[in-house]
Design brief:
Elements: E1 5-14, E2 17-22, E3 27-31, H1 38-48, H2 58-63, E4 64-73, E5 76-83, E6 91-96, E7 102-107, H3 114-121, E8 129-130, E9 142-143, H4 146-150, E10 154-155, H5 157-160, H6 173-183, H7 189-221, H8 227-255, H9 261-319, H10 361-474, H11 476-496, E11 505-507, E12 514-516, E13 519-520, H12 521-524, H13 530-549, E14 557-561, H14 573-587, E15 593-598, E16 611-613
Helix pairs in contact: 7-10, 8-10, 9-10, 11-13, 13-14
């Protein structure tokens, strides 16, 4: 039987007051012309459940600030309230209507959200992934949400004449099928989880196979055809290295006696001479640097000495100038009496005449510095010459000692040096070969590891497939019975709706879609025709009828917006549709709930079921004045989300 899922009431909190609608009956029809807001109300219900993106009209976004839903799920009764404010809409407020307890607020998305809460009430976990069950898909599948379940509860006006639960969208097929199977218990979350794991293993196996082929290609190019061949070549390289090492040790033992006491003495003397040569060369460099510093300082002192001499010479030249007139008042000074030792101009004692440049203190000091630096330079030159001679002597000594050593050891050592070098080359070659082979062996190890990993992945995948097959086999009888019952119910319903283009009706047991004239309905019926709408009514009412009669978790509520949208009002089909809806509500009272939104009802609609009438003076959001007929823009399925009415 179906899972009790009923909408008790909807309350809209608007800027001008509160509007409430109760849905206590098994069948409730919202009746009114296009544009009065019927779809607005249904989309607000979808918004309250956070069941995907709702197409909200401007009257909702501009005038409604909260929507509250009274919902029965199983034996529980909740009030779910959600704000339309952009800052508050991410959180939903929930109250337990039986106890009056305010439950913790839940986020719309993420972990422990309203989605988790509603799925849990439907007996489903929130981590179900709907993976593709055919082909070699490597994707784990998209997560099943309450919004996917709601596609089986609410058939909006923009889809009723076009599609069944987004079946035209190929990417959505795995999820639509998974939801169908979950609701009719043709599968369970564990099987879907295993199928998701099977797909993930497809990707892991493909990736491992690619790595394996890449390594095998590398090994083939490196001429290592098998692991055994690499191991054999590695043993041969290790044996070659050991042989070369033994040969090298033997040469060293033969070479040791050649080095006698006199040869060792020559070597000690050569070492000492090389050391003292290094010291002598360092001393030469220090003395050259010292000599250059003295020369630089001498140049600086000479420049200072020349500057002082030029200053004194300039003063002496100026002192010989005799003024004939006063430079201030221009009076003649020729007849002015003045002593020889005073200045004719200022009559002060003439100090210039008493001084002598040779007696200048500064010049005297600079002269002494120049003499001292000349002496230092001579000493530095002498020490430099001595150091250079010492270095030359050490170089000569080193040359003689080197020649003596070569003469003494040439005949005994040289014949063994080539053998020594050959043995060293063999060792180096063997080591390089071993390093190369070690890399190749590591690659063969990787080949073995990857092959084992692929084997384990395939074993896990085969086990999962076998388990899935076994689980499906156990419910095969239930599955076949449910699908056959749906097909019978659908065929009977379609025939009773008197659809002119329909010659035969059936049900696709693989895609879970209706068949019309032997083909999937979308390939037989054109969008925009009433036959498409009637086929949808037959499909959804058949599903909820069969779910009520079998073991299922199918929600007991069905909301249909605009069943007469594209139907000819004069045909028998509109009346047959409502007869089918009334029959579904009448057969098992309180087991299902139909909420229908339509423009006009056919004659013969039962008076036993409420019909809520709306018009332009009494729209669904009645607290907000309606602008009038034709002033509310209609939205087609291709337009952005908004209200249909």
């Amino acid at each position: 039987m179906t899972l009790n899922f009923r909408l008790g009431a909807v309350t809209l909190y608007t800027i001008e007051g509160t509007v409430s609608y109760e849905f206590g009956s098994d069948l409730t029809v919202l009746e009114g012309p296009t544009g009065v807001g019927k779809s607005t109300l249904l989309e607000l219900i979808k918004y309250g459940f956070a069941a995907g993106e709702a197409r909200l009209a401007s009257v909702a976004t501009e005038s409604v600030h909260d929507v509250a839903l009274q919902v029965e799920i199983g034996e529980d009764h909740y009030l779910i309230a959600r704000s339309l404010d952009a800052r508050k809409c991410k959180t939903v407020r929930i109250t337990d209507m039986r106890t009056g307890e305010r439950l913790p607020d839940l986020p719309v998305d993420g972990e422990s959200s309203l989605n988790t809460f509603l799925l849990d009430k439907l007996g489903l976990p929130d981590n179900i992934q709907a993976a593709a069950q055919k082909g070699k898909s490597s994707k784990p599948g998209s997560r099943v949400t309450f919004g996917d379940i709601f596609k089986f509860i609410y058939i909006p006006q923009y889809a009723i004449n076009r599609d069944i639960a987004d079946s035209r969208e190929g990417y959505y097929d795995p999820k639509r099928k998974a939801v169908f199977e979950l609701l009719f218990k043709l599968t369970d979350p564990e099987v879907l989880s295993m199928q998701s794991r099977v797909n993930i293993l497809n990707g892991e196996i493909d990736s491992a196979d690619k790595n394996l082929q890449a390594i095998l290609s590398f090994l083939h190019e490196s001429n290592t055809r098998s692991r055994e061949e690499v191991e054999q070549q590695l043993q041969e390289a290790a044996f070659a290295q050991d042989s070369a090492q033994e040969e090298l040790n033997a040469l060293r033992e033969q070479l040791d006696p050649v080095i006698d006491r006199q040869t060792q003495t020559y070597r000690d003397l050569l070492t000492d001479a090389e050391r003292t040569l290094g010291e002598a060369r360092a001393a030469v460099l220090d003395l050259i640097r010292e000599r250059d510093e003295i020369a630089l300082e001498t140049k600086r002192v000479k420049a200072a000495y020349s500057r002082l001499e030029r200053m004194r010479d300039a003063g002496a030249r100026l002192a010989n100038i005799e003024f004939s007139v006063c430079p201030r008042c221009m009076q003649s000074l020729k007849d002015r009496p003045a002593a020889d030792d005073v200045c004719r101009l200022c009559l002060q004692p003439d100090s210039i005449l008493s001084e002598n440049a040779d007696d200048s203190y500064e010049l005297h000091q600079l002269s002494l510095q120049l003499k001292e630096m000349d002496a230092q330079r001579e000493v530095a030159e002498q020490q430099l010459a001595k150091a250079q001679r010492a270095a030359m002597e050490r170089e000569s000594l080193i040359e003689k000692l080197t020649y003596a050593l070569e003469e003494r050891t040439a005949q005994r050592v040289t014949p063994r040096l080539q053998a020594f070098a050959d043995a060293s080359d063999k060792i180096a070659t063997a080591r390089t070969r071993q390093e190369h082979l070690d890399i190749a062996l590591q690659q063969w190890d990787r080949v073995t590891d990857i092959a084992e990993h692929v084997k384990s992945l395939r074993a896990e995948q085969d086990h999962l497939k076998a388990t899935i097959g076994a689980r499906k086999a156990t419910i095969a009888v239930h599955r076949n019975a449910v699908l056959a019952r749906i097909e019978d119910e659908f065929r009977t319903t379609v025939m009773n709706l008197h659809l002119a283009p329909v010659e035969s009706a059936g049900f696709d047991s693989e895609n879970y879609l209706p068949l019309i004239n032997g083909k999937v309905f979308t390939k037989t019926l054109m969008s925009g025709g009433g036959s498409m709408t009637a086929t949808q009514i037959a499909y959804w009412t058949s599903l909820i009828t069969v779910a009520r009669e079998t073991d299922s978790r199918y929600p007991s509520m069905l909301i249909i917006d605009g069943p007469r949208l594209a139907l000819n009002l004069d045909s028998e089909t509109p009346k047959a549709i409502y007869q089918r809806l009334m029959k579904g509500a009448r057969e098992n009272p309180s087991s299902v709930q139909f909420i229908i939104s339509d423009n006009e009802l056919p004659d013969g609609y039962g008076v036993d079921y409420p019909r809520v009438k709306f018009d332009y003076s009494n729209p669904t959001v009645s607290t907000i004045r309606h602008p009038g007929e034709g002033l509310v823009p209609r939205i087609t399925p291709e337009d952005s989300p908004a209200d249909e009415d």
